[in-house]
Specification:
single chain; 390 residues; alpha+beta; Butyryl-Coa Dehydrogenase, subunit A, domain 1; Butyryl-CoA Dehydrogenase, subunit A, domain 2; Butyryl-CoA Dehydrogenase, subunit A, domain 3; four-stranded antiparallel β-sheet; globular; transit peptide; AcylCoA_DH/ox_N_sf
Length: 390
C-alpha cells in the first residue's frame, strides 16, 4: 500500500521526471551551500554583500535564462524553470527576484525583441552571470498603468536620446544593461541601455521592509544617448513589456509556492516538537486544523503550477491563465505564511526561522508584476467580455 508523506501528501513527485527531480535537487544543493546559511543575516542587513558573486554561481548552474534557447543558453523546459523558481523562493523571494529579473524580464526582452546585434552582445554574458540586467518599466507615478509612462525617447540623427526615471527596479544598482521602455512619436518602444552611458544613474532605495536581500533602485536617465541598434525593432506599444511580465509572472506562480512550502514545513516541524500543556502543540485540534488547511492550499497551488508548466511546454499559456496562477498562488502563499507565523507564536517574528521573512517578502510579491486587483480585472474581463480597467 502507498505510504502517506506529510511533505508530499498528493505524491506530486510521481508526476515529475527523473531529470526534473535532478534539476530541483541541484538548485536546492547550490542554495544550501552558497545562500541558505547567510540569507537571514543578509535580510537583516538589508542586502547581499556581493550580489555579482551570486550571479556567477547562478550562471555556473545554468539558472540565468535557463528556459531560453540559443546564444549558449540552456533551453530547458518551463517545468524545469518553475521547479528552480520554487527552490529559489523557498530560500528567499529576493533571491528568486534576482534570477527572475535577469532571465524572465531583461534577458527575455532582449531575446524576444532586440536586434540580432544586441542579442549577441548581451545574452551569452548574461547567461553566465558575467553581465547583469535590469528591467525599467514602472515609474514613480505609473505602476499599474504603464501606458501613461513619462519616460521619453526622441530621435537625434541616427541616435536615440532618453529622458525620465524608473522606480522599484531590481538589480538596478549593479546592472550592466537596463531594458528601458519609453514613449516615442511611434508609441512605446524598448531599448537596451548600457548603464555606463553618460546621463544614466541608479540610486539604491532604502528603508524597505520586504525583499531586503535583493537590491532595488530608482533609475534616472538624463539625456542618455544610445545608437539606433539599441532600440527593439520588432515591437511597439505595451505588447513588448507586457509579454515580459507574463513570462516573469509564470515564475512567480511557482516561486510563491516555494515560500509557502518553507513556511509550512517550518510550522509542521515546530508543531511536532514544541511542548505546551505537557504535549506537542501538534496534538491540539486547532493546530491540526491550521496545518490541514495549509497543506490543502499549498499542494493545490503546486498542482496548479505544474499544470500551467506542462501546458506552457506543450502549447503555451494565455495571459489570463498566468494571471489565474499568480493571483491564486501568491494570495494563498501569503495566507499560509501568516498562519504558520501563528503556530510559531512569538518565535514566528524571529529571523531564527524563515516565516516572518517570507511573510514580508510576499507582501511585495503580492503587488509587483500586477496587483491582486489588476489580475482580478484581467480575469474579470476574460470572463465577462467587459473592460473594467477604466
Amino acid at each position: 500500500m502507498p505510504v502517506f508523506n506529510a511533505t508530499d501528501p498528493l505524491s506530486l513527485d510521481d508526476l515529475l521526471t527523473a531529470e526534473e527531480i535532478a534539476v530541483r535537487g541541484s538548485v536546492r544543493s547550490m542554495l544550501a551551500e552558497h545562500v541558505q546559511p547567510h540569507v537571514a543575516q543578509w535580510f537583516e542587513a538589508g542586502g547581499a554583500p556581493h550580489p555579482r558573486e551570486l550571479f556567477a554561481e547562478f550562471g555556473k548552474l545554468g539558472l540565468l535564462g535557463m528556459h531560453l534557447e540559443g546564444y549558449t543558453l540552456p533551453g530547458m523546459s518551463s517545468v524545469d524553470y518553475g521547479l528552480a523558481c520554487a527552490e529559489l523562493e523557498a530560500c528567499d523571494s529576493g533571491i528568486r527576484s534576482m534570477v527572475s529579473v535577469q532571465g524572465s524580464l531583461a534577458m527575455y526582452a532582449i531575446w524576444r525583441w532586440a536586434s540580432e546585434e544586441e542579442k549577441q552582445r548581451w545574452l551569452p554574458g548574461m547567461g553566465t552571470g558575467e553581465l547583469v540586467g535590469c528591467f525599467g518599466l514602472t515609474e514613480p507615478d505609473h505602476g499599474s498603468d504603464p501606458g501613461s509612462m513619462r519616460t521619453t525617447a526622441r530621435r537625434d540623427g541616427s541616435d536615440w536620446v532618453l529622458d525620465g526615471s524608473k522606480m522599484w527596479i531590481s538589480n538596478g544598482t549593479f546592472a550592466d544593461v537596463a531594458v528601458i521602455w519609453a514613449q516615442t512619436d511611434e508609441g512605446i518602444r524598448g531599448f537596451a541601455v548600457p548603464t555606463q552611458t553618460p546621463g544614466f544613474s541608479a540610486r539604491e532605495i532604502k528603508h524597505k521592509m520586504s525583499l531586503r536581500v535583493s537590491s532595488t533602485a530608482e533609475l534616472v536617465l538624463e539625456g542618455v544617448r544610445v545608437p539606433a541598434s539599441a532600440m527593439f525593432p520588432e515591437v511597439r506599444g505595451l505588447k513588448g513589456p507586457l509579454s515580459c511580465l507574463t513570462e516573469a509572472r509564470y515564475g512567480i506562480v511557482w516561486g510563491s509556492m516555494g515560500a509557502a512550502r518553507s513556511s509550512f514545513e517550518t510550522a509542521l516541524d515546530y508543531a511536532r516538537t514544541r511542548q505546551q500543556f505537557g504535549r506537542p502543540i501538534g496534538g491540539f485540534q486547532l493546530t491540526q486544523a491550521k496545518l490541514a488547511d495549509m497543506a490543502l492550499e499549498l499542494h493545490k497551488g503546486l498542482l496548479l503550477a505544474l499544470h500551467l508548466g506542462r501546458r506552457k511546454d506543450a502549447v503555451g499559456l494565455t495571459t489570463e491563465q498566468v494571471s489565474f496562477g499568480k493571483l491564486n498562488n501568491v494570495r494563498e502563499a501569503l495566507d499560509i505564511c501568516r498562519t504558520s507565523r501563528t503556530i510559531l507564536a512569538a518565535n514566528g517574528i524571529s529571523l531564527e526561522y524563515p516565516v516572518i521573512r517570507h511573510m514580508n517578502n510576499l507582501e511585495s510579491v503580492l503587488t509587483y508584476e500586477g496587483t491582486v486587483e489588476m489580475h482580478q480585472l484581467i480575469l474579470g474581463q476574460a470572463l465577462t467580455g467587459e473592460n473594467a480597467f477604466s
